[in-house]
Specification:
Aspartate Aminotransferase, domain 1, 4-stranded antiparallel β-sheet, 373 residues, Aspartate Aminotransferase, domain 2, 7-stranded mixed β-sheet, alpha/beta, 13 helices
Length: 373
Amino acid sequence: MSVSPPPYPYERLDDLRRRAAGHDGGAIDCSIGTPVDPPPPAVLAELARGADVRGYPSSAGSAVFREACAAWMGRRFGVDLEADQLAACVGTKEFVASLAGYLALGRPERDTVLFPSISYPTYAMGALLAGLRAVPVPRREDGRTDLDAIDPRDRDRALVLWANSPSNPTGSLDDLEALASWGREHDVVVASDECYADYTWMDRPRSILEHGLEGVVAVHSISKRSNLAGLRAGFYAGDSAVVGPLRSWRQHAGLMVAGPVQAAAAAAYGDDEHVERQRERYRARLVALHRALDDAGVAAAMPEGAFYLWARREGDDGWSLAEWLAEVAGLVVSPGELYGTDGAAYVRVAVVQPDERIELAARRLRGAPRGKT
């Protein structure tokens, strides 16, 4: 091939892992937001039952799966959805990476993907994979998307605007109503990645669909909500004029969530108690590492949502701070530059280690020398 893909972001952290591994007790890897806590037993039982394992599963999702997802949207957000307004996806990362390409089939005159300037790298990668322009949108000081900063020339070429609230990596909440209104005014689909909505700390969980379905699509996943990232299951919901064509294109592409996985995901969306227990785990871990980092001279405000600390230290960029944390605390974190050049001064700390490992990291940090070494 004449075109080589860029390095996968987290493969660039191998040196940090080597530095951290020298500590007694080894490295504490908080670089990737992969869940480590147990999923609900009832979900595993449903998975083991092997429902619908013989036949091809429905690409759009079984009736049971879609009904469970729709019922959860009603309980959590007060949003009523019909069957044709919701469909399954094979984990939300593949949906994020492929959405722009499918949308472009219906609007070839639009060639631009707008996304937050500090964000999950796959929003920009989706544009690259589709041969489209990826244009970052700056954040305001309060962490919200600065819609006024969008160049009118980019606005008029925009196919989709991505939102992520709570944000990965910053943990900030966005103004979903303003984003939906902007998209309708300028005839741009707004895609709202809401996979961290259950872990909203400074407000109740919110969805862009609370502000109407016209021109918007929300994306949800069981990966973070239910500690089931390995199952690769989620759903997208919203405007039937957007969901319907997407569902058809994706069926042609053979994108299907395995039948037993759909049954297990339906069970997960039918149970809210396990999420409340997980919320308390993440809240306690955030508090513990927030305090320990502060004691070590690293500024890491408690987030508005998600399970990440967005941290910085005066005089450091993200890579040098990540190296220091690996050396003094055996803590592996992600330099903020992985999430866009606007994040270069920061690191992202994912509190996805078991409680005892988080406490070990906190003890090491409390014993670390303040200031640069």
